[in-house]
Amino acid sequence: MSFPLITDPAFYAAAIPAVLLLGISKSGFGAGFGSLAVPILALAVPVPQAAAMLMLPLLLMDILGLHAFRRDFDWPLLRFLLPWGLLGTLCGTLLFRVLDSHLVAGITGVFTLAFLAQRLLFPPRAGSGAWPKWLGALLSTTSGFTSFVAHAGGPAVNAYVIPMRLPPVVFTGTMAVFFFAMNIAKWVPYGWLGLLDLRNMATSLVLLPIAPLGVFAGIRIARRIQPVLFYRLLLLGMLLTGSKLVWDGFLA
Protein backbone atom coordinates (compact mmCIF):
# COMPACT_ATOMS: atom_id res chain seq x y z
CA MET A 1 0.00 0.00 0.00
CA SER A 2 1.42 3.38 -0.97
CA PHE A 3 1.78 6.11 1.63
CA PRO A 4 -0.83 8.82 0.84
CA LEU A 5 1.55 11.77 0.83
CA ILE A 6 1.08 15.06 -0.93
CA THR A 7 3.82 15.22 -3.56
CA ASP A 8 3.02 18.55 -5.23
CA PRO A 9 6.13 20.82 -4.96
CA ALA A 10 3.86 23.87 -4.75
CA PHE A 11 2.42 22.50 -1.51
CA TYR A 12 5.85 22.22 0.10
CA ALA A 13 6.80 25.67 -1.17
CA ALA A 14 4.01 26.95 1.09
CA ALA A 15 4.28 24.36 3.87
CA ILE A 16 7.97 24.72 4.70
CA PRO A 17 7.86 28.52 5.30
CA ALA A 18 4.61 28.06 7.24
CA VAL A 19 6.17 25.53 9.61
CA LEU A 20 9.31 27.64 10.04
CA LEU A 21 7.23 30.71 10.92
CA LEU A 22 5.22 28.69 13.38
CA GLY A 23 8.40 27.40 14.99
CA ILE A 24 9.85 30.88 15.36
CA SER A 25 6.60 32.07 16.91
CA LYS A 26 6.75 29.27 19.49
CA SER A 27 10.02 30.70 20.76
CA GLY A 28 8.30 34.00 21.53
CA PHE A 29 10.42 35.92 19.05
CA GLY A 30 8.10 36.79 16.21
CA ALA A 31 5.09 35.54 18.14
CA GLY A 32 2.81 37.72 16.07
CA PHE A 33 3.87 35.90 12.92
CA GLY A 34 2.69 32.44 13.95
CA SER A 35 -0.90 33.04 12.90
CA LEU A 36 0.32 33.44 9.33
CA ALA A 37 1.10 29.71 9.13
CA VAL A 38 -2.39 28.48 8.23
CA PRO A 39 -3.08 31.32 5.75
CA ILE A 40 0.21 30.53 4.00
CA LEU A 41 -0.48 26.79 3.94
CA ALA A 42 -4.03 27.51 2.80
CA LEU A 43 -2.55 28.79 -0.45
CA ALA A 44 -2.12 25.10 -1.30
CA VAL A 45 -4.84 23.22 0.63
CA PRO A 46 -8.19 24.07 2.30
CA VAL A 47 -8.01 25.71 5.73
CA PRO A 48 -9.29 22.70 7.76
CA GLN A 49 -6.76 20.43 6.05
CA ALA A 50 -3.99 22.97 6.65
CA ALA A 51 -4.88 23.13 10.34
CA ALA A 52 -4.80 19.33 10.63
CA MET A 53 -1.45 19.01 8.85
CA LEU A 54 0.19 21.33 11.36
CA MET A 55 -0.84 19.28 14.40
CA LEU A 56 2.26 17.06 14.68
CA PRO A 57 4.74 19.92 14.08
CA LEU A 58 2.80 21.97 16.63
CA LEU A 59 3.06 19.20 19.22
CA LEU A 60 6.83 18.98 18.81
CA MET A 61 7.19 22.77 18.85
CA ASP A 62 5.13 23.02 22.02
CA ILE A 63 7.28 20.42 23.77
CA LEU A 64 10.49 22.17 22.73
CA GLY A 65 9.12 25.55 23.79
CA LEU A 66 7.98 24.24 27.16
CA HIS A 67 11.40 22.74 27.80
CA ALA A 68 13.25 25.90 26.80
CA PHE A 69 11.12 28.22 28.95
CA ARG A 70 10.13 25.80 31.71
CA ARG A 71 11.16 28.21 34.48
CA ASP A 72 9.64 31.34 32.96
CA PHE A 73 5.87 30.98 33.34
CA ASP A 74 3.54 33.49 34.94
CA TRP A 75 1.37 30.96 36.77
CA PRO A 76 -1.21 33.39 38.20
CA LEU A 77 -1.81 34.73 34.70
CA LEU A 78 -2.09 31.21 33.28
CA ARG A 79 -4.63 30.21 35.91
CA PHE A 80 -6.79 33.01 34.59
CA LEU A 81 -6.17 32.48 30.86
CA LEU A 82 -6.45 28.71 30.53
CA PRO A 83 -10.09 28.07 31.52
CA TRP A 84 -11.31 30.76 29.15
CA GLY A 85 -9.09 29.52 26.35
CA LEU A 86 -10.43 25.99 26.77
CA LEU A 87 -13.96 27.37 26.67
CA GLY A 88 -13.06 28.87 23.29
CA THR A 89 -11.82 25.46 22.14
CA LEU A 90 -15.15 23.94 23.11
CA CYS A 91 -17.00 26.65 21.17
CA GLY A 92 -14.78 25.98 18.16
CA THR A 93 -15.56 22.27 18.34
CA LEU A 94 -19.31 22.83 18.43
CA LEU A 95 -19.37 25.48 15.70
CA PHE A 96 -16.65 24.15 13.38
CA ARG A 97 -19.00 22.60 10.83
CA VAL A 98 -21.32 25.59 10.57
CA LEU A 99 -18.80 28.43 10.47
CA ASP A 100 -16.90 29.61 7.43
CA SER A 101 -13.23 29.47 8.43
CA HIS A 102 -12.44 32.37 6.08
CA LEU A 103 -15.03 34.53 7.84
CA VAL A 104 -13.51 33.65 11.21
CA ALA A 105 -10.09 34.56 9.84
CA GLY A 106 -11.39 37.88 8.56
CA ILE A 107 -13.02 38.80 11.86
CA THR A 108 -9.82 37.87 13.70
CA GLY A 109 -7.87 40.10 11.34
CA VAL A 110 -10.21 43.06 11.90
CA PHE A 111 -9.84 42.68 15.64
CA THR A 112 -6.05 42.47 15.34
CA LEU A 113 -5.83 45.65 13.27
CA ALA A 114 -8.22 47.43 15.64
CA PHE A 115 -5.98 46.55 18.57
CA LEU A 116 -2.95 47.91 16.73
CA ALA A 117 -4.80 51.10 15.81
CA GLN A 118 -5.73 51.57 19.45
CA ARG A 119 -2.09 51.15 20.47
CA LEU A 120 -1.01 53.71 17.86
CA LEU A 121 -3.70 56.32 18.45
CA PHE A 122 -3.88 55.95 22.23
CA PRO A 123 -0.46 54.70 23.33
CA PRO A 124 -0.39 53.36 26.89
CA ARG A 125 0.94 55.73 29.51
CA ALA A 126 3.37 54.66 32.19
CA GLY A 127 1.51 52.92 34.98
CA SER A 128 -1.67 52.56 32.94
CA GLY A 129 -1.90 48.86 33.83
CA ALA A 130 -3.50 45.92 32.06
CA TRP A 131 -6.91 45.47 30.45
CA PRO A 132 -9.84 44.65 32.78
CA LYS A 133 -10.42 41.00 33.64
CA TRP A 134 -13.72 40.74 31.75
CA LEU A 135 -11.93 41.75 28.56
CA GLY A 136 -9.17 39.27 29.31
CA ALA A 137 -11.77 36.52 29.62
CA LEU A 138 -13.32 37.52 26.29
CA LEU A 139 -9.96 37.71 24.52
CA SER A 140 -8.77 34.40 25.95
CA THR A 141 -11.97 32.69 24.83
CA THR A 142 -11.59 34.25 21.39
CA SER A 143 -8.01 33.02 21.29
CA GLY A 144 -9.04 29.46 22.08
CA PHE A 145 -11.75 29.62 19.44
CA THR A 146 -9.61 31.05 16.63
CA SER A 147 -6.76 28.73 17.58
CA PHE A 148 -9.08 25.77 17.12
CA VAL A 149 -10.49 26.94 13.79
CA ALA A 150 -7.29 28.17 12.13
CA HIS A 151 -4.34 28.05 14.60
CA ALA A 152 -4.76 31.83 14.77
CA GLY A 153 -5.11 32.27 18.51
CA GLY A 154 -2.11 34.54 18.96
CA PRO A 155 -3.55 37.98 18.15
CA ALA A 156 -6.41 37.84 20.65
CA VAL A 157 -4.46 36.67 23.69
CA ASN A 158 -1.51 38.88 22.71
CA ALA A 159 -3.83 41.88 22.83
CA TYR A 160 -4.53 41.13 26.49
CA VAL A 161 -1.02 40.17 27.58
CA ILE A 162 1.11 42.71 25.66
CA PRO A 163 0.00 45.71 27.79
CA MET A 164 1.33 43.87 30.86
CA ARG A 165 4.86 44.39 29.49
CA LEU A 166 6.15 41.08 30.81
CA PRO A 167 9.86 40.33 30.31
CA PRO A 168 10.26 38.65 26.90
CA VAL A 169 11.14 35.23 28.33
CA VAL A 170 8.19 35.33 30.76
CA PHE A 171 5.84 36.36 27.96
CA THR A 172 7.21 33.51 25.85
CA GLY A 173 7.00 30.90 28.59
CA THR A 174 3.46 31.90 29.49
CA MET A 175 2.32 31.71 25.88
CA ALA A 176 4.12 28.37 25.47
CA VAL A 177 2.06 26.83 28.27
CA PHE A 178 -1.17 28.46 27.10
CA PHE A 179 -0.91 27.22 23.53
CA PHE A 180 0.38 23.81 24.56
CA ALA A 181 -2.88 23.39 26.46
CA MET A 182 -4.93 24.74 23.55
CA ASN A 183 -3.22 22.46 21.04
CA ILE A 184 -3.46 19.32 23.20
CA ALA A 185 -7.17 20.05 23.62
CA LYS A 186 -7.63 20.00 19.82
CA TRP A 187 -6.62 16.40 19.20
CA VAL A 188 -9.81 14.61 20.23
CA PRO A 189 -12.16 17.15 18.58
CA TYR A 190 -10.09 17.14 15.38
CA GLY A 191 -10.33 13.36 15.31
CA TRP A 192 -14.06 13.51 15.95
CA LEU A 193 -14.44 16.00 13.09
CA GLY A 194 -12.56 13.68 10.73
CA LEU A 195 -9.59 15.99 10.17
CA LEU A 196 -6.90 13.54 11.33
CA ASP A 197 -7.09 11.22 8.34
CA LEU A 198 -4.14 9.18 7.08
CA ARG A 199 -3.16 11.59 4.32
CA ASN A 200 -3.13 14.63 6.59
CA MET A 201 -1.17 12.81 9.30
CA ALA A 202 1.33 11.34 6.83
CA THR A 203 2.00 14.80 5.41
CA SER A 204 2.21 16.21 8.93
CA LEU A 205 4.86 13.59 9.72
CA VAL A 206 6.92 14.67 6.71
CA LEU A 207 6.82 18.28 7.92
CA LEU A 208 7.84 17.30 11.45
CA PRO A 209 11.65 17.57 11.03
CA ILE A 210 11.30 21.22 10.01
CA ALA A 211 9.64 22.14 13.30
CA PRO A 212 12.76 22.34 15.53
CA LEU A 213 14.65 24.60 13.13
CA GLY A 214 12.39 27.59 13.63
CA VAL A 215 12.05 26.96 17.37
CA PHE A 216 15.80 26.79 18.01
CA ALA A 217 16.49 29.86 15.89
CA GLY A 218 13.80 31.84 17.66
CA ILE A 219 14.89 30.74 21.14
CA ARG A 220 18.42 32.01 20.56
CA ILE A 221 17.10 35.39 19.48
CA ALA A 222 14.44 35.64 22.21
CA ARG A 223 17.02 35.23 24.98
CA ARG A 224 19.18 38.02 23.55
CA ILE A 225 16.72 40.56 22.21
CA GLN A 226 15.98 43.84 23.98
CA PRO A 227 12.40 44.09 25.32
CA VAL A 228 11.59 47.22 23.29
CA LEU A 229 12.63 45.57 20.04
CA PHE A 230 10.87 42.35 21.07
CA TYR A 231 7.52 44.10 21.41
CA ARG A 232 8.00 46.14 18.25
CA LEU A 233 8.55 42.97 16.27
CA LEU A 234 5.58 41.39 18.00
CA LEU A 235 3.37 44.26 16.89
CA LEU A 236 4.81 44.10 13.37
CA GLY A 237 3.92 40.44 13.23
CA MET A 238 0.40 41.23 14.36
CA LEU A 239 0.12 43.89 11.65
CA LEU A 240 1.12 41.45 8.92
CA THR A 241 -1.08 38.73 10.38
CA GLY A 242 -4.10 40.99 10.71
CA SER A 243 -3.72 42.29 7.17
CA LYS A 244 -3.39 38.79 5.75
CA LEU A 245 -6.38 37.49 7.70
CA VAL A 246 -8.56 40.40 6.57
CA TRP A 247 -7.52 39.78 2.99
CA ASP A 248 -8.32 36.08 3.23
CA GLY A 249 -11.61 36.67 5.01
CA PHE A 250 -13.13 39.52 3.05
CA LEU A 251 -11.12 40.43 -0.04
CA ALA A 252 -9.68 37.27 -1.60
From TrEMBL:
What residue intervals traverse the membrane? 6-24, 36-60, 80-96, 103-122, 134-157, 169-189, 201-222, 229-247
Q: Does the keyword Cell membrane apply?
A: yes
The annotated topology with respect to the bilayer is: Multi-pass membrane protein
- The source's domain of life comes to Bacteria
Q: Where in the cell is it found?
A: Cell membrane
Instruction: Give any Pfam family that matches.
Output: TauE
**Keywords assigned:** Cell membrane, Membrane, Transmembrane, Transmembrane helix, Transport
Q: Name one GO cellular component term.
A: plasma membrane
Chief location bin: membrane
Q: Which family does it belong to?
A: Belongs to the 4-toluene sulfonate uptake permease (TSUP) (TC 2.A.102) family.
> What is this protein's name?
Probable membrane transporter protein
